[in-house]
Structures are given as C-alpha cells and as structure tokens.
Amino acid sequence: MNKIKPLILVVDDTLTNIDLLTDVLTDDYRLGIAMNGQKALAFVDRNPPDLILLDIMMPEMDGYEVCRCLKKNRKTRDIPVIFITAMSDTAHVAKGFDVGGVDYVTKPFHSLEVKARVKTHLILKNQLSMSARIFESSLDGIIVTDPNTVIQIVNPAVSEITGYSAEEMIGRKTNMLQSRRYDKFFYQEMWNTLTETGNWTGEIWNRKKNGEIYPQWLSITAIQDLWGRVTNYVGVFHDMSEMKRQQDELKYQASHDALTDLPNRNFFQYRLMDSMANAERHGEMLAIMLLDLDNFKSVNDSLGHTTGDLLLQEVASRLLLCLGEGGFVSRLGGDEFAILLEDVRNEERVVKVAGLIYESISKPFHLKTHDFFLTVSIGITFCPADGQDPETLLKNSDIAMFRAKQHGGNSYEIFTLAMDREVTRRLTLEAQLRRAIERDELMVYYQPKLDLVSGCIVSMEALVRWQKPNEGIVSPAEFIPLAEKTGLILPLGKWVLQTAALQTKKWWDAGYRLRVAVNLSPRQFQEKNLLEMIHVVLAETGLPPAGLELEITESIVMENEEMSLELMAKMSAMGLHLALDDFGTGYSSLRYLKQFPINTLKIDKSFMDNVPGDDENVAITSAIISMARSLKMQVVAEGVETEEQLHFLRQLVCDEIQGYLFSPPVPADKFSVMLKENKCLPSY
Ligand code: C2E
Ligand code: MG
Ligand code: MG
Question: How much distance in Å is there from the Cα of 475 to the middle of ligand 1?
C-alpha cells in the first residue's frame, strides 16, 4: 500500500552526531532533523514520524522532558523513542525507560547496532498497530476484562451490537449484559469450564441496552501471565439473531405451502406421526380427512392459474375457519388438502366436521367480478383402525376420497375397515342423504284423506320419499330420524314444504281447493325462523294459508307447552290448520289439549289394528272420537285398510279417513288422475 520509506526523526544538539546518524540511516529511511527539544516537538506535531532517535543531554529541554511530553499526548504516545547518549550508567538508563523510551544506544555507537535496534522497534510497532487495527475493525465484539470481569477495553463492534458506548461499559462488570434467562448454575458451569480449560464457547442470550434479548455466539478465553495467573478475560462474540431468523425462515419455508401458507405434506406427515404416538399413549382415536376439490382442473384451465390460486387461498382460509383450534389443516399439493382431527371421541364428530366443510365450501366464492361455486370430495379414515402409519392412513383416505368422487363428488366416504357395519351404514346413509336433496332424489307422495259424509277427497298428506339410484325407494321411517339427528331435516323439511305447496297451488289453479298436510319434525318446530320460512314459502308459491295444514306430534307439543302454545297460536292466527299426529301414542295432557288451537286429531294407525275385533282398540278409538267432538276438533283415522274398519268408523261418526283401503301415498301425477276421475269411496 504505502511504498514510502518510514520516517525517522533524529534529535541532537551536535552536528557531528547528526551527520553520523544520517550516514547510517539515509539509505533505508526518510529522515527528519531537530536540533533541540522544542523543535523536535514542533516537528512531531506537524509530521508524526515512525520512530524517534532522541539525545538526552540538550540545553533548555533535555531528552527525558521531550519524551515525557510525547507520552502525554494521545497522538504521539505510541511513537517508539530510542535514547542516544554517552551516559551509560544504570540510573540514567533506568530513567530513560521510566519516561517511556523503548531502547537505549550509547555513544560512541556502532552503525550496525543502530540499524538493528531501529529496525526491530519499527517491526514491533508495526505488529502492535496491526493488532490494534484488527481489534478496531473486527465485526465480532471483543471485550477485555480484568480477572474480576471488570471491563477494561471494548472494540467498536461491541457498541454496535449492544448499543452501549465504550464509556458506558468500561469499569463495569460484564454481568451488566446478562439477560436473566439463566439461573446461577448456568454461570457456575461456565466458570468451571473456563477455569479448567481456559476457554468457554457457546450460545448465550444477552441483553442489549434497549432491553432486547438476543442470542450470541460467545468465546471467552482466560489470558495468563508467565506465572500462570489470570490477568484478563477476552470475550469475542457475534449476534446470531439474523442467522437464527434466517434458519427459522428456511425451516418455515420447508414445512409450509407458499401459496396458502398452510403446512405442507411433509409437515402433515410429521405431525401425524407425532399425534399417532400421542394417541397411542392415551388410547385415543384420530381421524384423517382427505379433501379434493371437484373439477378444479377445469376451473383452473378455463379461468387461468391466477384465479385458481385465489380460489385455493380462499378454500384454505375457509377450512381454517371451519376447524378453528380443533384440527390441523394442510395442503398436500394441487387442490388436495388434508385435515387431522385429534382425540376423536366418536365418528359423529368427524361427520359433523365434514358437514361444516360442505356448508362452507358450498357458499359462493366472490372473486373479482364473478361468483364461483365449488364442491369437494372427502375421504375419511380413522386411526388406529385404518392404518398404523401415515402412508397407509393417507392411502386409505385417498381410496375413500376416490370412492366419493366415483359417486359424483360433493360428498364424503368413510374408509370402511374402520367401523362396524351398523355405524358405517348409518354414516354412509347420512352422506348419501346429504347429496340426495341437491340431486333431486327426493320426491313428495300424496295420500288422500276422504270425507266420510261425502266419500270424496278433501285433503291429502304430503309424505316424502327417497328414490335412491339403483336401490329403489327408501322409507322415511328410515331416514327421517337420521335427518332429524343431523339437522338435515331443516333443508329437507323446507324442500318438502315448498314442493307440496307448489303442487297444491297447481291443483287449486285447476279448480281443486284441497288442503295439503305437511309433517313438521321436532327440530323444525324449535327452529326460530320457522314461521318466517312458512310465510316465505306461501308467498312464493301463492298458496293461501287455508290450503296448508301442519301435522305435529304430541311429543313436540308436550315438551315445551308454553312455547308450543305461543307458536301454535301464531300459526293459527296466520290461517293455517293444525293437526295432532299419531294421537294416542304419547301422553297428552287433556287439560292442555283444550287450550291448544288444534283443528284436527289424527288417530294413530296402531289403534286400527284388528278393529272392530279388538275390544281395547275399539274402546280407545271411540273415546278419542267423542272427546274430539266435545273439544270441537275434527278426527282423522289413519291406516284404514279394510271395509270393516271403514264401517266401524262411520258408525262412530269419524270425520275423515286415510289409508290403503282407498289409496296408498302416490306421486303427484297419479294423484291428479284420481282428482280428474273424481274418485270417491266405493260405497257412496
Ligand atoms: P305419519 O305422518 O304418521 O304418516 C303416515 C304414515 O302411515 C305414512 O308412512 C303412510 O304411508 C302410512 N300409511 C298410510 N296409510 C296406511 C295404511 O293403510 N296402512 C299402513 N300400514 N300404513 C299406512 P310413511 O310415508 O312411511 O311415513 C312415515 C312417517 O315418516 C310419517 O308418519 C311421518 O312421521 C314421517 N314423515 C314422512 N314424510 C315426512 C316429511 O316430509 N317430514 C317429516 N317431518 N316427517 C315425515
Ligand atoms: Mg303425518
Ligand atoms: Mg301419523
């Protein structure tokens, strides 16, 4: 870098000495000359040399004095001074070192000796300044303490990292930097190692001036003197926060999906393994749900990947919302997601989650200017029943999911090893029922009710039927209780009401002013907006309230008498007819019965068994009929199958009958034919 020769200042008051020294040094060095102390100091101030050769005996200001001045000044104190003098007695030599000289040459001197001493001290000075520069420019913080950990020197990097200036630290103990994260045993261990080996290296969390706690990589070394006494400790450290942050970031990226920010497949498998071990320990059950969006590929192809990506992100956040804290959602890739449910007490819980997911995914996705609709297929497995390792479980979930796709998508399937037949059947039925509504597999049949005076059709009961693909008709006795239990009865019941009301309105328009009776389930009865829903259906279909009768069972009414009374009063005020279904099978309180605005009692068909042969049934039936008459209610007998039953009921002056004798429940078109043909009871 600097090719200029080192500058040496020769200070002497005799010319001969100056000439001699100049001869010796001029080849290797640049030289400055000063003939007295004052001039020497002025020279140094202007032009600091690399070394000074200083005569002691000079008038006015002697060499000792000059040296003292130089050492006092921060700018000049590191310049090595070699004394040159004729006074070689020990006292003088000692005094020379005392005031800060580094060496001594006695006159008359030998030229080689002068050269050698000058060179040695220039090299030493150079080495020292190199160390100082390293210390100053090091990016690692360096703290030097005394044996009692009192800070002596710090380099600029320490201030850079900790925020403390050198002045704030020097003189204080290093524990000013402690984070209070560790107990005293930690520091004890540290000191033990340091004392035994002379070094301690490791990660440690310390505190900055602003209070921030940060990780640093620290190496402490004990410095000993020649006698093995510790004179200093040197701590060298750097801040690891950034490195740690980068490591964390990398770890996160490796375990998460960049698009949705959900855990990725690796993370899912890892987590699954973890949960499995945990579940095994506690004897718990896990469920894995594998989700695949239906027809996502075509969405992606037709709308472009950007839109596809937005959809996936929205699906991800909906899944998270559905599960809340209760599940672990991950994106396995493409349009495939996996959910892990822990501590699953029963299969129903999983089915419930599946239900929530359907509900959420079926809501429109608002993207840019368009609304999109998505459906999803889900495969479900249970652990440990369906597999002992993540691969098997995922594979089996995939099989179940594929089966759901085969059934046309928008449904879930449960991997069947998991459960006994009955549960599987019920859960499968539920899965199928869920899609039955959307797929138009439900129908409403109508069973006529006949007036016993005229013998003609006066009303009909709407009864739901489920036409299962390739399997025929399923009885409501089988699926209504299930729908009730799962809440599916709400959409189902609404659909029946809409369909029946619409059909009845058509009959009204054709001139048949019939009343349609629709069954209400307990769950519907408890639904807050039931009245509102009925209102809307009537308004939308145009059927007058007088065209609608609601069939309610005794048990609903008796469960919460006051609430029922209020609701039924409102229904009645709307102009709707109310019938008490399956009457006689529950425990109606006659006192309450009187208060309810009930128009009709339907005698349960079980009381028609062996009538008129069965005395008990005969007695009950006649009692119900006479009671109804006194309460000014109409009576309908259900399940009338024989002429004998009909005859018997006519004798008791029952108002209406319903049963296979005249007609089973039939589809709307068949019912229309009956109306057109004006079909009546044969004996009229
Ligand atoms: P329910 O309301 O008591 O309906 C009368 C049931 O008796 C109907 O059974 C009907 O087909 C049957 N039935 C009619 N005449 C005869 C007969 O002469 N002999 C015999 N043995 N049975 C006869 P279905 O259609 O199987 O319905 C069973 C039950 O399912 C209904 O009992 C009702 O509680 C419920 N249900 C049907 N459709 C709906 C609906 O849309 N909503 C609700 N909530 N429940 C419904
Ligand atoms: Mg009924
Ligand atoms: Mg009934």
Answer: 9
Instruction: Report the predicted TM-score, pTM, of the whole model to 2 decimal places.
Output: 0.52
User: How crowded is residue 317: how many other Cβ atoms within 10 Å of its Cβ?
Assistant: 14
Let me know: does 417 contact 386? Beta carbons within 8 Å. Answer: yes
Residue 410 has pLDDT above 90, yes or no: no
**What are the structure tokens assigned to 226, written together?**
């020649």
Ligand 1 atom 21: residue of nearest CA: 639
> CA-to-CA distance for 474 and 135, rounded, in angstroms?
89
Q: Is 582 in the pocket of ligand 1 (CB under 6 A)?
A: yes
- Nearest-CA residue for ligand 1 atom 13 is 639
Tokens read off for 651: 């004798």
How many Å apart are CA 412 and CA 399, to the nearest integer? 11
Over residues 323-343, the mean pLDDT reads 92
Predicted pLDDT at 298: 81
* Helix boundaries (H) for 155-203: 156-162, 166-169, 184-197
Three-class SS state of 453: coil
Q: For residues 284 and 332, is the Cβ–Cβ distance under 8 A?
A: no
Angle subtended at Cα 174 by Cα 172 and Cα 179, rounded to the nearest 5 degrees: 125
Site to probe by mutation for ligand 1, drawn from 445, 450, 463, 525 as the one with most ligand atoms within 8 Å of Cβ, is: 463
463 lines ligand 1 (CB under 6 A): yes
Structural domains of the chain sorted by starting position, each given as residue range(s) with its CATH number in brackets? 7-137 (3.40.50.2300), 141-244 (3.30.450.20), 256-415 (3.30.70.270), 428-676 (3.20.20.450)
- 447 CB less than 6 Å from ligand 1? yes
Closest ligand 1 atom to 661 CA: 18
Give per-residue pLDDT as tens, 274-329: 999 999 999 999 999 999 999 888 888 888 888 899 999 999 999 999 987 779 99
Q: CA–CA separation, 360 vs 381, rounded Å?
A: 21
